[in-house]
Amino acid sequence: MTTWTSLEPASTTVDPGSSTTVRLRLRNTGDVVDEYRFEPVDDVAPYVSVEPPSLRLFPGTTGIVELTFAPPRTPDATAGPHPYGVRILPTEHPETTTVAEGNVTFTTFMEVRAELVPQTVKGRFRGRPRLAVDNLGNTVLTASIGGGDKASDDLSYEIVPANVQIQPGRAAFVDATLKPRQITWVGQKQERPYELSVRRSGFEPLAVNGTYVQRSLLPLWMMTTLSLLLALTITGLVLWFTYKAPVRTLAQPRIEQAGATALPEEPPEQPTQKPTQDPAPSEKAEASGGGGEEKPEEEEEKVERGPLPITSEDKPNLFVQFAQVRLVVGAGGCKLTAAHTVGKLDAATQKALKCFQESNHTAYGDFSQLVKADGAGNLGRATMTALLASHFVDAKTVPLNADEASPEVPWVRNMLLWGTQAEIDDGDLDITIACTRANIDYLSKQVQRKEKPSPGLFNRIKEYQGLFGAEQTGVMDELTLNKTKVGWINGQDAAGTVVAKDWLPAPME
Protein backbone atom coordinates (compact mmCIF):
# COMPACT_ATOMS: atom_id res chain seq x y z
CA MET A 1 0.00 0.00 0.00
CA THR A 2 1.26 3.47 -0.93
CA THR A 3 -1.79 5.44 0.28
CA TRP A 4 -3.71 6.10 3.48
CA THR A 5 -7.31 7.44 3.40
CA SER A 6 -9.87 8.79 5.86
CA LEU A 7 -13.48 10.05 5.36
CA GLU A 8 -14.65 12.88 7.62
CA PRO A 9 -17.38 12.04 8.53
CA ALA A 10 -17.75 8.41 7.50
CA SER A 11 -21.57 8.69 7.65
CA THR A 12 -23.68 11.70 6.70
CA THR A 13 -27.27 12.71 5.98
CA VAL A 14 -28.65 14.89 3.19
CA ASP A 15 -32.09 16.15 2.14
CA PRO A 16 -33.02 15.47 -1.50
CA GLY A 17 -32.88 18.77 -3.34
CA SER A 18 -30.03 20.09 -1.17
CA SER A 19 -26.38 19.10 -0.73
CA THR A 20 -23.79 18.17 1.88
CA THR A 21 -19.99 17.78 1.83
CA VAL A 22 -17.64 15.05 3.12
CA ARG A 23 -13.85 15.43 3.28
CA LEU A 24 -11.54 12.71 2.04
CA ARG A 25 -8.01 12.87 3.48
CA LEU A 26 -5.30 11.12 1.44
CA ARG A 27 -1.62 10.56 2.37
CA ASN A 28 1.13 9.38 0.01
CA THR A 29 2.96 6.71 2.03
CA GLY A 30 5.18 5.74 -0.92
CA ASP A 31 8.63 6.97 -1.85
CA VAL A 32 7.82 8.69 -5.17
CA VAL A 33 5.70 11.63 -6.25
CA ASP A 34 2.32 10.28 -7.34
CA GLU A 35 -0.89 11.67 -8.89
CA TYR A 36 -4.25 10.28 -7.72
CA ARG A 37 -7.55 10.32 -9.62
CA PHE A 38 -10.93 9.86 -7.91
CA GLU A 39 -14.05 8.06 -9.22
CA PRO A 40 -17.35 7.78 -7.26
CA VAL A 41 -18.84 4.26 -7.38
CA ASP A 42 -22.04 2.44 -6.26
CA ASP A 43 -25.68 3.50 -6.76
CA VAL A 44 -25.32 7.07 -5.52
CA ALA A 45 -22.39 7.82 -7.86
CA PRO A 46 -24.52 10.05 -10.16
CA TYR A 47 -25.20 12.35 -7.21
CA VAL A 48 -21.55 12.67 -6.08
CA SER A 49 -18.97 15.14 -7.38
CA VAL A 50 -15.29 15.26 -6.36
CA GLU A 51 -13.31 18.49 -6.19
CA PRO A 52 -10.56 18.50 -7.26
CA PRO A 53 -10.93 15.44 -9.55
CA SER A 54 -7.21 14.62 -9.18
CA LEU A 55 -4.47 15.32 -6.61
CA ARG A 56 -0.64 15.28 -6.87
CA LEU A 57 1.22 14.45 -3.64
CA PHE A 58 4.88 14.21 -2.65
CA PRO A 59 6.00 11.29 -0.49
CA GLY A 60 4.81 11.63 3.11
CA THR A 61 2.40 14.52 2.36
CA THR A 62 -1.38 14.66 2.88
CA GLY A 63 -4.04 16.17 0.63
CA ILE A 64 -7.77 16.80 0.98
CA VAL A 65 -10.56 16.47 -1.60
CA GLU A 66 -14.24 17.28 -1.02
CA LEU A 67 -17.09 14.94 -1.92
CA THR A 68 -20.34 16.81 -2.54
CA PHE A 69 -23.60 14.83 -2.33
CA ALA A 70 -26.51 16.53 -4.17
CA PRO A 71 -29.40 14.08 -4.68
CA PRO A 72 -32.35 15.55 -6.65
CA ARG A 73 -35.78 15.93 -5.10
CA THR A 74 -37.21 13.12 -7.23
CA PRO A 75 -38.44 9.58 -6.55
CA ASP A 76 -35.09 8.25 -7.83
CA ALA A 77 -33.39 9.46 -4.64
CA THR A 78 -34.94 6.71 -2.50
CA ALA A 79 -35.15 7.47 1.21
CA GLY A 80 -32.82 5.56 3.55
CA PRO A 81 -29.12 4.71 3.96
CA HIS A 82 -26.98 4.20 0.86
CA PRO A 83 -23.40 2.90 0.92
CA TYR A 84 -20.99 4.68 -1.38
CA GLY A 85 -17.40 4.44 -2.40
CA VAL A 86 -14.66 6.55 -4.00
CA ARG A 87 -12.11 4.66 -6.11
CA ILE A 88 -8.58 6.10 -5.75
CA LEU A 89 -6.37 5.44 -8.79
CA PRO A 90 -2.61 6.10 -8.34
CA THR A 91 -0.81 6.95 -11.58
CA GLU A 92 2.59 5.53 -10.61
CA HIS A 93 1.30 2.40 -8.85
CA PRO A 94 -2.07 1.50 -10.51
CA GLU A 95 -1.95 -1.95 -8.92
CA THR A 96 -2.46 -0.33 -5.48
CA THR A 97 -5.93 1.08 -6.34
CA THR A 98 -8.08 1.45 -3.19
CA VAL A 99 -11.71 2.34 -2.45
CA ALA A 100 -12.70 4.62 0.41
CA GLU A 101 -16.14 3.58 1.66
CA GLY A 102 -18.76 5.52 3.56
CA ASN A 103 -22.50 5.81 4.10
CA VAL A 104 -24.98 8.55 3.15
CA THR A 105 -28.63 8.67 4.22
CA PHE A 106 -31.28 10.38 2.08
CA THR A 107 -34.05 11.86 4.20
CA THR A 108 -37.71 11.20 3.44
CA PHE A 109 -39.95 13.61 1.59
CA MET A 110 -43.60 13.11 0.60
CA GLU A 111 -45.18 14.56 -2.52
CA VAL A 112 -48.53 13.31 -3.81
CA ARG A 113 -50.57 14.45 -6.78
CA ALA A 114 -54.12 13.31 -7.57
CA GLU A 115 -56.34 13.99 -10.59
CA LEU A 116 -59.87 13.01 -11.59
CA VAL A 117 -60.34 11.58 -15.09
CA PRO A 118 -62.78 12.93 -16.16
CA GLN A 119 -63.50 15.73 -13.73
CA THR A 120 -67.19 15.87 -14.73
CA VAL A 121 -69.28 12.70 -15.15
CA LYS A 122 -72.90 12.41 -16.26
CA GLY A 123 -75.59 9.79 -15.76
CA ARG A 124 -79.10 9.04 -14.58
CA PHE A 125 -78.31 6.23 -12.14
CA ARG A 126 -74.53 6.35 -11.64
CA GLY A 127 -71.25 8.00 -12.66
CA ARG A 128 -67.85 6.33 -12.93
CA PRO A 129 -64.84 8.68 -12.55
CA ARG A 130 -61.26 7.45 -12.07
CA LEU A 131 -58.79 8.95 -9.61
CA ALA A 132 -55.14 8.92 -10.68
CA VAL A 133 -52.77 9.07 -7.68
CA ASP A 134 -49.06 9.81 -8.38
CA ASN A 135 -46.38 9.20 -5.75
CA LEU A 136 -43.75 11.87 -6.47
CA GLY A 137 -41.98 11.30 -3.14
CA ASN A 138 -39.01 9.06 -2.39
CA THR A 139 -40.71 6.56 -0.07
CA VAL A 140 -43.61 4.12 -0.35
CA LEU A 141 -47.00 5.86 -0.20
CA THR A 142 -49.71 4.12 1.84
CA ALA A 143 -53.08 5.83 1.70
CA SER A 144 -56.81 5.27 1.82
CA ILE A 145 -59.29 6.78 -0.60
CA GLY A 146 -62.56 8.28 0.62
CA GLY A 147 -65.43 10.25 -0.85
CA GLY A 148 -67.99 12.76 0.30
CA ASP A 149 -70.36 15.49 -0.87
CA LYS A 150 -69.42 19.12 -0.37
CA ALA A 151 -72.72 20.37 0.96
CA SER A 152 -75.10 17.42 1.38
CA ASP A 153 -75.40 13.66 1.44
CA ASP A 154 -76.90 13.22 -2.03
CA LEU A 155 -74.47 10.56 -3.29
CA SER A 156 -73.19 7.17 -2.19
CA TYR A 157 -69.67 6.01 -3.05
CA GLU A 158 -68.12 2.71 -4.07
CA ILE A 159 -64.32 2.94 -4.29
CA VAL A 160 -62.10 0.12 -5.56
CA PRO A 161 -59.48 -0.26 -4.20
CA ALA A 162 -60.14 1.67 -1.01
CA ASN A 163 -56.48 1.43 0.03
CA VAL A 164 -53.40 1.85 -2.14
CA GLN A 165 -49.68 1.30 -1.67
CA ILE A 166 -47.61 3.05 -4.34
CA GLN A 167 -43.87 2.78 -4.88
CA PRO A 168 -41.85 5.99 -5.43
CA GLY A 169 -42.26 7.34 -8.95
CA ARG A 170 -45.29 5.15 -9.68
CA ALA A 171 -49.01 5.86 -10.06
CA ALA A 172 -52.19 3.99 -9.17
CA PHE A 173 -55.71 4.32 -10.56
CA VAL A 174 -58.75 4.06 -8.31
CA ASP A 175 -62.20 3.36 -9.77
CA ALA A 176 -65.10 5.18 -8.11
CA THR A 177 -68.83 4.65 -8.66
CA LEU A 178 -71.16 7.51 -7.66
CA LYS A 179 -74.85 6.69 -7.12
CA PRO A 180 -77.55 9.29 -6.36
CA ARG A 181 -79.66 8.44 -3.33
CA GLN A 182 -82.80 9.70 -5.11
CA ILE A 183 -83.74 9.35 -8.78
CA THR A 184 -84.84 12.54 -10.55
CA TRP A 185 -87.87 11.54 -12.61
CA VAL A 186 -88.75 14.82 -14.33
CA GLY A 187 -87.05 18.19 -14.63
CA GLN A 188 -83.72 19.79 -15.30
CA LYS A 189 -80.46 17.97 -14.75
CA GLN A 190 -78.83 18.52 -11.36
CA GLU A 191 -75.15 19.31 -10.77
CA ARG A 192 -73.90 17.61 -7.61
CA PRO A 193 -70.37 18.59 -6.49
CA TYR A 194 -68.42 15.78 -4.83
CA GLU A 195 -64.96 15.19 -3.43
CA LEU A 196 -62.53 12.27 -3.43
CA SER A 197 -59.68 12.49 -0.93
CA VAL A 198 -56.32 10.77 -0.49
CA ARG A 199 -55.81 10.20 3.24
CA ARG A 200 -52.36 9.57 4.76
CA SER A 201 -51.41 9.07 8.38
CA GLY A 202 -49.97 12.26 9.83
CA PHE A 203 -50.92 14.45 6.85
CA GLU A 204 -53.90 16.56 5.87
CA PRO A 205 -56.15 14.77 3.35
CA LEU A 206 -55.48 15.68 -0.29
CA ALA A 207 -58.89 16.56 -1.74
CA VAL A 208 -59.82 16.45 -5.43
CA ASN A 209 -63.10 18.08 -6.47
CA GLY A 210 -65.38 16.91 -9.25
CA THR A 211 -68.96 17.28 -10.46
CA TYR A 212 -71.61 14.61 -11.03
CA VAL A 213 -74.35 15.77 -13.43
CA GLN A 214 -77.51 13.80 -12.68
CA ARG A 215 -79.93 13.67 -15.58
CA SER A 216 -83.65 13.22 -15.06
CA LEU A 217 -85.24 9.94 -16.14
CA LEU A 218 -87.70 11.85 -18.36
CA PRO A 219 -86.12 15.04 -19.68
CA LEU A 220 -88.18 18.24 -19.62
CA TRP A 221 -88.28 18.48 -23.42
CA MET A 222 -89.76 14.97 -23.63
CA MET A 223 -92.46 15.75 -21.06
CA THR A 224 -93.36 18.95 -22.94
CA THR A 225 -93.59 17.11 -26.24
CA LEU A 226 -95.70 14.26 -24.79
CA SER A 227 -98.08 16.73 -23.13
CA LEU A 228 -98.50 18.65 -26.38
CA LEU A 229 -99.16 15.47 -28.38
CA LEU A 230 -101.73 14.30 -25.82
CA ALA A 231 -103.53 17.65 -25.88
CA LEU A 232 -103.64 17.68 -29.69
CA THR A 233 -104.92 14.09 -29.79
CA ILE A 234 -107.76 14.82 -27.35
CA THR A 235 -108.70 17.98 -29.26
CA GLY A 236 -108.78 16.07 -32.54
CA LEU A 237 -111.01 13.34 -31.11
CA VAL A 238 -113.46 15.88 -29.67
CA LEU A 239 -113.73 17.69 -33.01
CA TRP A 240 -114.16 14.39 -34.87
CA PHE A 241 -117.19 13.33 -32.85
CA THR A 242 -118.89 16.74 -32.47
CA TYR A 243 -118.48 18.34 -35.89
CA LYS A 244 -121.51 18.33 -38.28
CA ALA A 245 -121.21 19.69 -41.81
CA PRO A 246 -124.09 22.07 -42.89
CA VAL A 247 -126.48 20.76 -45.70
CA ARG A 248 -128.53 23.13 -47.94
CA THR A 249 -131.13 22.21 -50.69
CA LEU A 250 -132.28 24.17 -53.73
CA ALA A 251 -135.31 21.92 -54.52
CA GLN A 252 -138.46 23.89 -55.63
CA PRO A 253 -142.16 22.83 -55.13
CA ARG A 254 -144.04 21.32 -58.15
CA ILE A 255 -146.63 23.59 -59.93
CA GLU A 256 -150.00 21.86 -60.59
CA GLN A 257 -151.26 22.06 -64.20
CA ALA A 258 -155.04 22.92 -64.85
CA GLY A 259 -156.91 22.20 -68.07
CA ALA A 260 -160.15 20.95 -69.51
CA THR A 261 -158.70 17.97 -71.02
CA ALA A 262 -156.78 15.70 -68.80
CA LEU A 263 -153.34 15.45 -70.15
CA PRO A 264 -150.65 13.16 -68.96
CA GLU A 265 -148.76 14.76 -66.21
CA GLU A 266 -145.18 15.65 -66.91
CA PRO A 267 -142.72 14.08 -64.62
CA PRO A 268 -141.85 16.43 -61.83
CA GLU A 269 -138.79 18.52 -62.32
CA GLN A 270 -135.86 16.92 -60.60
CA PRO A 271 -134.56 19.20 -57.89
CA THR A 272 -131.11 20.47 -58.51
CA GLN A 273 -128.73 20.63 -55.56
CA LYS A 274 -125.41 22.35 -55.47
CA PRO A 275 -122.66 20.26 -53.99
CA THR A 276 -121.84 21.02 -50.45
CA GLN A 277 -118.78 23.20 -50.23
CA ASP A 278 -115.63 21.44 -49.12
CA PRO A 279 -114.58 22.36 -45.63
CA ALA A 280 -111.53 24.47 -45.17
CA PRO A 281 -108.24 22.64 -44.97
CA SER A 282 -108.18 23.21 -41.23
CA GLU A 283 -111.70 21.72 -40.96
CA LYS A 284 -110.59 18.67 -42.95
CA ALA A 285 -107.77 18.11 -40.55
CA GLU A 286 -110.10 18.43 -37.58
CA ALA A 287 -112.77 16.20 -39.15
CA SER A 288 -110.24 13.50 -39.91
CA GLY A 289 -109.06 13.53 -36.29
CA GLY A 290 -105.58 14.86 -37.18
CA GLY A 291 -103.67 16.89 -34.63
CA GLY A 292 -101.63 19.11 -36.94
CA GLU A 293 -97.91 18.93 -37.49
CA GLU A 294 -95.83 17.76 -34.58
CA LYS A 295 -93.15 20.06 -33.35
CA PRO A 296 -89.68 18.65 -33.88
CA GLU A 297 -88.03 17.36 -30.77
CA GLU A 298 -85.52 19.77 -29.33
CA GLU A 299 -82.05 18.54 -28.69
CA GLU A 300 -81.14 18.08 -25.08
CA GLU A 301 -77.93 20.02 -25.53
CA LYS A 302 -76.66 21.95 -28.50
CA VAL A 303 -72.91 21.63 -28.88
CA GLU A 304 -71.11 23.79 -31.37
CA ARG A 305 -68.77 21.92 -33.67
CA GLY A 306 -65.36 23.33 -32.96
CA PRO A 307 -62.89 24.17 -35.73
CA LEU A 308 -59.65 22.36 -36.50
CA PRO A 309 -56.81 23.08 -36.92
CA ILE A 310 -55.86 25.44 -34.07
CA THR A 311 -54.74 28.81 -35.46
CA SER A 312 -53.36 32.11 -34.19
CA GLU A 313 -56.95 33.34 -33.73
CA ASP A 314 -57.59 30.80 -30.96
CA LYS A 315 -57.13 31.54 -27.27
CA PRO A 316 -54.10 30.19 -25.33
CA ASN A 317 -54.56 26.46 -24.79
CA LEU A 318 -52.94 23.26 -23.53
CA PHE A 319 -52.15 21.76 -26.96
CA VAL A 320 -50.20 24.76 -28.24
CA GLN A 321 -48.36 24.76 -24.89
CA PHE A 322 -47.32 21.14 -25.55
CA ALA A 323 -46.12 22.05 -29.07
CA GLN A 324 -44.05 24.90 -27.60
CA VAL A 325 -42.45 22.67 -24.95
CA ARG A 326 -41.78 19.99 -27.58
CA LEU A 327 -40.12 22.55 -29.89
CA VAL A 328 -38.11 24.17 -27.09
CA VAL A 329 -36.28 20.86 -26.52
CA GLY A 330 -36.09 20.27 -30.29
CA ALA A 331 -38.24 18.35 -32.77
CA GLY A 332 -37.51 17.57 -36.42
CA GLY A 333 -34.33 19.65 -36.33
CA CYS A 334 -36.30 22.77 -35.29
CA LYS A 335 -36.10 24.62 -31.97
CA LEU A 336 -38.22 27.36 -30.46
CA THR A 337 -35.70 29.82 -29.00
CA ALA A 338 -37.48 33.16 -29.36
CA ALA A 339 -39.69 34.69 -26.65
CA HIS A 340 -43.28 33.45 -26.87
CA THR A 341 -46.61 33.51 -25.02
CA VAL A 342 -47.40 30.24 -23.26
CA GLY A 343 -50.21 28.39 -25.04
CA LYS A 344 -50.67 31.06 -27.74
CA LEU A 345 -49.92 30.31 -31.40
CA ASP A 346 -47.96 33.54 -31.78
CA ALA A 347 -45.50 34.48 -34.53
CA ALA A 348 -42.48 32.83 -32.86
CA THR A 349 -44.37 29.59 -32.28
CA GLN A 350 -45.76 29.58 -35.83
CA LYS A 351 -42.25 30.00 -37.26
CA ALA A 352 -40.86 27.04 -35.30
CA LEU A 353 -43.95 24.94 -36.06
CA LYS A 354 -43.72 25.73 -39.78
CA CYS A 355 -40.05 24.66 -39.73
CA PHE A 356 -41.10 21.33 -38.20
CA GLN A 357 -43.89 20.84 -40.77
CA GLU A 358 -41.59 21.50 -43.72
CA SER A 359 -38.64 19.39 -42.52
CA ASN A 360 -37.90 16.26 -44.55
CA HIS A 361 -36.79 13.20 -42.60
CA THR A 362 -35.75 10.71 -45.24
CA ALA A 363 -35.10 8.14 -42.52
CA TYR A 364 -38.82 7.41 -42.21
CA GLY A 365 -40.79 9.58 -44.66
CA ASP A 366 -41.79 12.99 -45.91
CA PHE A 367 -43.29 15.67 -43.63
CA SER A 368 -44.77 17.70 -46.51
CA GLN A 369 -48.29 16.35 -45.89
CA LEU A 370 -48.42 18.21 -42.54
CA VAL A 371 -48.80 21.54 -44.34
CA LYS A 372 -51.38 20.05 -46.73
CA ALA A 373 -53.46 18.68 -43.85
CA ASP A 374 -53.26 21.56 -41.31
CA GLY A 375 -51.87 24.60 -43.13
CA ALA A 376 -48.44 26.15 -42.56
CA GLY A 377 -47.92 27.22 -38.94
CA ASN A 378 -51.23 25.76 -37.73
CA LEU A 379 -51.65 22.95 -35.19
CA GLY A 380 -54.01 20.21 -36.38
CA ARG A 381 -54.44 16.47 -35.98
CA ALA A 382 -51.59 15.57 -38.38
CA THR A 383 -49.05 17.97 -36.84
CA MET A 384 -50.06 16.97 -33.29
CA THR A 385 -49.59 13.27 -34.16
CA ALA A 386 -46.13 13.93 -35.65
CA LEU A 387 -45.04 16.10 -32.68
CA LEU A 388 -46.00 13.35 -30.23
CA ALA A 389 -44.26 10.72 -32.38
CA SER A 390 -41.04 12.76 -32.41
CA HIS A 391 -40.62 11.48 -28.83
CA PHE A 392 -39.69 8.16 -30.51
CA VAL A 393 -37.42 9.71 -33.17
CA ASP A 394 -34.58 7.23 -32.52
CA ALA A 395 -36.83 4.21 -31.91
CA LYS A 396 -37.97 1.64 -34.46
CA THR A 397 -40.58 0.02 -32.22
CA VAL A 398 -42.33 0.75 -28.93
CA PRO A 399 -42.46 -2.40 -26.76
CA LEU A 400 -45.60 -2.51 -24.61
CA ASN A 401 -46.24 -5.27 -22.06
CA ALA A 402 -49.78 -5.64 -20.73
CA ASP A 403 -48.41 -6.70 -17.30
CA GLU A 404 -45.77 -3.98 -16.96
CA ALA A 405 -46.20 -0.24 -16.33
CA SER A 406 -44.38 1.93 -18.86
CA PRO A 407 -43.77 5.70 -19.21
CA GLU A 408 -44.42 5.36 -22.97
CA VAL A 409 -48.14 4.58 -22.49
CA PRO A 410 -49.31 8.26 -22.21
CA TRP A 411 -47.31 9.07 -25.37
CA VAL A 412 -48.73 6.19 -27.44
CA ARG A 413 -52.32 6.71 -26.19
CA ASN A 414 -52.26 10.45 -26.99
CA MET A 415 -50.53 9.97 -30.36
CA LEU A 416 -53.04 7.35 -31.58
CA LEU A 417 -56.07 9.31 -30.36
CA TRP A 418 -55.11 12.25 -32.60
CA GLY A 419 -54.29 9.83 -35.44
CA THR A 420 -57.58 7.89 -35.39
CA GLN A 421 -60.30 10.30 -34.19
CA ALA A 422 -61.66 12.53 -36.96
CA GLU A 423 -64.20 13.91 -34.44
CA ILE A 424 -63.15 14.71 -30.86
CA ASP A 425 -65.92 14.37 -28.26
CA ASP A 426 -66.00 14.86 -24.48
CA GLY A 427 -64.48 11.44 -23.73
CA ASP A 428 -61.64 11.91 -26.26
CA LEU A 429 -60.92 15.38 -24.85
CA ASP A 430 -60.65 14.07 -21.27
CA ILE A 431 -58.14 11.41 -22.36
CA THR A 432 -55.93 13.75 -24.41
CA ILE A 433 -55.92 16.41 -21.66
CA ALA A 434 -54.62 13.91 -19.08
CA CYS A 435 -52.03 12.49 -21.50
CA THR A 436 -50.87 15.92 -22.76
CA ARG A 437 -50.30 17.11 -19.20
CA ALA A 438 -48.20 13.99 -18.54
CA ASN A 439 -46.24 14.64 -21.77
CA ILE A 440 -45.53 18.26 -20.74
CA ASP A 441 -44.43 17.13 -17.24
CA TYR A 442 -42.01 14.68 -18.85
CA LEU A 443 -40.49 17.27 -21.21
CA SER A 444 -40.27 20.16 -18.73
CA LYS A 445 -39.75 18.42 -15.38
CA GLN A 446 -38.55 14.91 -16.35
CA VAL A 447 -41.48 13.48 -14.37
CA GLN A 448 -42.40 10.06 -15.78
CA ARG A 449 -45.94 8.79 -15.30
CA LYS A 450 -45.90 5.02 -15.65
CA GLU A 451 -49.03 2.96 -16.24
CA LYS A 452 -49.95 -0.40 -17.67
CA PRO A 453 -51.33 -0.46 -21.23
CA SER A 454 -55.04 -1.32 -21.25
CA PRO A 455 -56.76 -3.66 -23.76
CA GLY A 456 -58.30 -0.52 -25.25
CA LEU A 457 -54.83 0.80 -26.15
CA PHE A 458 -53.96 -2.37 -28.08
CA ASN A 459 -57.33 -2.13 -29.87
CA ARG A 460 -56.51 1.49 -30.76
CA ILE A 461 -53.21 0.33 -32.33
CA LYS A 462 -55.13 -2.26 -34.40
CA GLU A 463 -57.64 0.39 -35.47
CA TYR A 464 -54.82 2.70 -36.64
CA GLN A 465 -53.12 -0.14 -38.54
CA GLY A 466 -56.40 -1.03 -40.25
CA LEU A 467 -56.86 2.56 -41.44
CA PHE A 468 -53.76 2.43 -43.66
CA GLY A 469 -54.26 -1.21 -44.70
CA ALA A 470 -51.59 -2.90 -42.55
CA GLU A 471 -51.93 -6.17 -40.67
CA GLN A 472 -53.77 -5.50 -37.40
CA THR A 473 -51.24 -6.93 -34.95
CA GLY A 474 -51.74 -4.47 -32.07
CA VAL A 475 -47.95 -3.98 -31.90
CA MET A 476 -46.24 -0.61 -32.37
CA ASP A 477 -43.89 -1.96 -35.05
CA GLU A 478 -41.60 0.04 -37.34
CA LEU A 479 -44.21 0.57 -40.09
CA THR A 480 -46.88 1.78 -37.65
CA LEU A 481 -44.45 4.07 -35.80
CA ASN A 482 -43.16 5.59 -39.05
CA LYS A 483 -46.76 6.42 -40.08
CA THR A 484 -47.22 8.42 -36.88
CA LYS A 485 -43.83 10.15 -37.30
CA VAL A 486 -44.94 11.71 -40.61
CA GLY A 487 -48.39 12.60 -39.23
CA TRP A 488 -50.57 10.06 -41.09
CA ILE A 489 -54.14 10.41 -39.77
CA ASN A 490 -57.63 9.10 -40.36
CA GLY A 491 -59.21 11.32 -43.03
CA GLN A 492 -55.95 12.87 -44.18
CA ASP A 493 -57.67 15.46 -46.35
CA ALA A 494 -60.27 16.49 -43.73
CA ALA A 495 -59.53 19.07 -41.08
CA GLY A 496 -61.59 17.23 -38.44
CA THR A 497 -64.17 18.55 -36.00
CA VAL A 498 -64.68 18.91 -32.25
CA VAL A 499 -67.95 18.38 -30.39
CA ALA A 500 -66.52 18.58 -26.87
CA LYS A 501 -67.94 21.33 -24.67
CA ASP A 502 -64.73 22.46 -22.95
CA TRP A 503 -62.70 23.05 -26.13
CA LEU A 504 -60.04 24.50 -25.88
CA PRO A 505 -58.49 23.50 -22.48
CA ALA A 506 -56.40 26.12 -20.71
CA PRO A 507 -52.58 25.78 -20.43
CA MET A 508 -50.89 24.31 -17.37
CA GLU A 509 -49.35 26.64 -14.83
Key terms:
509 residues, alpha+beta, Immunoglobulin-like, 3 domains, five-stranded mixed beta sheet, 10 helices, 24% helix
Your description of this structure?
This protein has 509 residues and is of the alpha+beta class. It has 3 domains: 3-106, Immunoglobulins (Immunoglobulin-like, Sandwich), CATH 2.60.40; 112-218, Immunoglobulin-like (Sandwich), CATH 2.60.40.2310; 318-498, no CATH class. Helices cover 24% and strands 27% of the residues. The protein contains 10 helices and 24 strands. The chain has helices spanning 220-242, 281-287, 318-328, 347-358, 369-374, 381-389, 409-420, 426-445, 455-467, 478-485, and strands at residues 3-8, 11-14, 20-28, 34-41, 48-51, 54-57, 62-69, 80-90, 98-106, 112-117, 120-123, 130-135, 141-149, 155-160, 163-166, 171-180, 186-187, 190-199, 206-214, 218-219, 360-361, 365-366, 423-424, 497-498. The strands form 7 sheets. The chain has a 5-stranded mixed beta sheet with strand order 2-9-8-4-6, with no helix packed on it. Strand 8 (80-90) and strand 9 form a beta hairpin. The longest helix is centred in the middle third of the chain and has 23 residues, at 220-242. The radius of gyration is 39 Å and the shape is elongated. 27% of the residues are buried.
Task: Please write out the topology.
Elements (H helix, E strand, L loop, with lengths): L2 E6 L2 E4 L5 E9 L5 E8 L6 E4 L2 E4 L4 E8 L10 E11 L7 E9 L5 E6 L2 E4 L6 E6 L5 E9 L5 E6 L2 E4 L4 E10 L5 E2 L2 E10 L6 E9 L3 E2 H23 L38 H7 L30 H11 L18 H12 L1 E2 L3 E2 L2 H6 L6 H9 L19 H12 L2 E2 L1 H20 L9 H13 L10 H8 L11 E2 L11
Helix pairs in contact: 3-8, 6-7, 6-10, 7-8, 7-9
